[in-house]
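step 4 of 6: structure.
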Amino acid sequence: MILTAALGIPLLGALILVFRKQWHEQSARLFTVAVTGVPLLLMLISWARFDSDGPLFQLMEETEWVPSLGMGFRLGVDGVALAISTMSALIFMAAAAYPVDTKGSPRQYYAWILFLETASLGVFLALDLLLFYVFFDLTLVAMYFLIGRWGHGSPQYSALKFFLYTLLGSLFLLLAILGLYLASEPRTFDMRELIAQQPLAAAGPFASIIMLGFLLGFAIKTPLIPFHTWLPQAHVDAPAPASAILAGVLLKMGTYGLIRIPYSMMSQTFVEWALPLAVLAVVSILYGALVALGQKDLKRRIAYTSINHMGYTVLAHL
Amino acid sequence: MFVALGAGYPTVAVLHFVAHALMKAPLFLIVGLAGDKAASYQLKALGKTALPNSLKFATLGATLALAGLFPLGAGWTKEAIVTAAGHYTPWAAVATALAGGLSAIYAARLLFSLFPRFYGVANPETAADQQNERFQQAAIYALVLATLAASLMWVPGIPQQVAGWFDSGVPPFKAWELALSMMLVATGIVLGLWLANKNRHASGESTLSIFISTWMGLPGLARLLVVNPVLRVAEGLAYIDDRAVDAGVTATARFANWTGVMGDRIGEWLFDEMPEGLARLSGRAGRQLRQLQSGMLHHYYFVIAAGFVAIIITFAVGTLMGDML
């Protein structure tokens, strides 16, 4: 129940914030910081319970949802997920504590932060492909509102550009997920079974198309050149804590997805695509660094250094 | 330190690393204290400033360690590095010893620039200054004492013990290397003293010294060959990124906008015109039909008669067609 609690408690916190109309800035912030402390604590406990000599995925929590379609509510961790979710929980706590101009709507702001935390942790803890996808897209919704309502500059433009661009990537991701699902025998969305099955191992061109879908989706999210142009705008116009979450948590979903899905479930095809991906990563590294150097706005500069660093992360996969 | 690592003596590198830290830290603190008092870090200004008398000996300890003089710890590590380099080739040992000699020159120059009347009259300092600086001085003395404690490295067995912790060895000193190195250090100290005196009495900076002290124009060259071109490329790429790379996205957005506007103008008109047009036609038909209600009896009789004729014709045609089939 520990992982479900890590997801459920921030969501509950968000709902409480929505309904407690009498809370102002200070109380809302304190409440949020306290609530974000809980998933962090739970992740640390999970870390302590994790057996590094044990099976790949541990602390499993699953419930069948639509058994005939192989859909289920499945949560679990491996080393990567554990590290990344603990780090994310810490970032959320820091972001919640950071004082920000909530423009007269503090409860709503903090409620969105907590909702975003649920969605983000859900991405990292999900062991069902469809659940992964749902949480992946929910993060976009939360971030859209955080940027659009509490941002500065041209926040609505930036929020919309961010949302539509990354949603386009999600569309490719969904199609690829469905392709992978349809190739599995028996049909399942369970990540552990897909990793064991390697459904598209000998599928030739079809596997390449599915891989392209995954790579496009994750390349837009990571982001890799040339699908990166949503990031600088979003970073500059977002409020500082939302920028921190965008850089520290949301961008990681792209590379995490790369490890969790194509790298693990389509290993053979991944090897074939390794070189082009490596080239793209190196281009991102160099281009990101150079364009960062050429920026005059500091937040834009940091945004481009994110692109540079995500290039390193992707290169490390290969 | 890298010479020691490259020669395969990591212990020596680590010990040098420690000795270096212990003597460099107080040097920085001393220069910081002096620089604060002089409001400048120029050697001439520092030399003219009244520094605490007690600091003289702390500076002496630190600078002699910098020079690598026996029996200070940094001296042992420097000799060990010379010996380590000598394992590769004797010329490497000579080169390292020469480098050590150069270190001695600048160490001595620093000492005698800070304290030009080292061997002369003590520098006066106010009691208030001494009170304010007691923590700074305490830190400096502590570090210099630690530097002096590092002289234990000269005690036979101690470096070997440390090497044991790292599973490696310590090179045994060679007499000629030791002699050469120490001679170069001694020469360096004398040269440093001479340079310090010369600098103190000189009226301005010579062109040569300016050239050397500004890294022989290398920063300017680096700026010309590397920094400026890279910055130009970076700015160009930033420009392209904003315009060209994002152009596809912006164009897509503009196209989407255009389809929206077209949809709103033409599409909506078309889709709306179907029910609207049908409604208009129905209305017109209704109005036309209403005209039949003229209220005049003879019009109604005419319509009834016309209708009756139409029925008869329909039946007649139907019967005829039925007969034919």
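step 5 of 6: annotate
 - Chain B touches chain A at residues 230-231, 233-239, 241, 245-246, 249, 253 (CB under 8 Å).
 - Chain B has a mean pLDDT of 86.
step 6 of 6: archive
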